[in-house]
What does this fold into?
Amino acid sequence: MVKENKPNRLILPSLLIATLSTYPPSIVAAVLLTEISNDLNIPVGIGGQIRTTASVVAFLGSIAMTFISSRYNFKRLLTVGLLVIASSAVASSLAPSFTVLILATILTGAGMAIVVPMITTLIAEYYSEAEQGRVISLMGMGGGFGFLLGGTIVGQIAEVGGWRLAYIGFAGTLGALGLIFTYFALPDTENKGTDDIATGIREITSNGSAVGCILSNLLASAAIQGLYFWCFSFLRETFQTSTVQTGYIFTGTAVMFITGSYITSPILAKLGPRLTTTLGLLGTSICTVTYNIAPTLLIAIIAILLGNLLDALRYNAHNTLSLQQTKVKGSMMSLHNAASNLGYSIGGALGALLLVTGWQTLGTILTAMSLLAAATIQIYIKKNRAQRLIRACTQQL
It folds into this structure.
């Protein structure tokens, strides 16, 4: 583990750039979906499977990374993942057909499956336990800024050279920058890997707290789709908000996520990751119920914005909590990432309920999943571990 007395000042910006490199492909696909579909002569509904493909591959790749990360060096894996993301951006920009674009998207999902868990794992390698919550919060802020500014950047690039230039100019550039900083600026880590790749799985499955973290993250990731995704369609249908109004609200959610990430560190120092995660889940549950039964648009918007702020606390604290549960950091965070991707898919798939029922039924189910996630943490995560983390964070401050 690399924890130097005089830490390399390039570690934090390098990890931040690596984090930012995972967002552009999905931003390009979301913002320019209509342009991509029209250019490749496919229906928009079919074009939307770009996002689904990336999520499915990221989930499967994260499962594979549970074994791979036990055997190979974390920094080298991160370097490979960033190389794959940068290559996928170039391949996407050159895709002559939708089939080729899907193949390039498979590369994107594979790269994300490597990069996301390795960033969190390297935080544990480079920083002390007391510092990890602060650094993870900064990564969350960076992701929020990526979404806040990414749509505007993609739109400006597309005005000049279309969706193909957006892929290579935005996604490709950030991927290449992340690769360069990772290769040249990050110190080598001491983990050399092990021949027994099943060791990490055995250690995790025998640890009730680790299993509880993974299960609660899956439930939380599914539940939060109400505040991340479905709420915007709810506002359009229930309150007839315009596209412009909905866009402003979306921007507001990104600002609130950034704000929540900013205040996570001092809250973690006072409450610890276990209690912070639990309170975040309880808060998002209340906000999900509130926007679904809100009598006015203003109340619904306030609930959605507050819910995104509270989930920033939950998201960053949840990452910190998972990171501290076992010594096999790479395998643990790979499973944590797999649970996130599977949860996102489940939360999105639950939207099919809207075909046979109303918004309140969907909101009730998502709320119940969030409450179940909070209960899972309280039941399975050991209290003494959480209390020790509070003391470590307090001493660091």
User: Anything to note?
Assistant: The longest helix spans residues 129-185.
